[in-house]
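Annotated sample (chain length 84).
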Amino acid sequence: MSSGKLYIVQQFEKQGGRLGAGRVMQFKTAEEARSRADRDGDRLGIVVGVVAVEQTVDLDTGEILEEPIILARHGTVPDEVAGN
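Output written by the structure step:
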């Protein structure tokens, strides 16, 4: 089993009266993901929230091996990533 890190930015949008998932982007480094989330956080509009996470996965199966690490969080995001 070989493991690796994924660096993901997830945007969130208002969809009617609820919060829905928006665009998902993958980056090569934690700093790239954090920078993108920070830029998105500076210009919230249609996108109402954004979170950058580091995730350890099994590269062969895609299985998640550890809890995600929140790198950056801005605006309105679901409770499970808001730290509530």
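Annotation: The mean pLDDT is 91.
Annotation: The CA atoms of residues 11 and 23 lie 5 Å apart.
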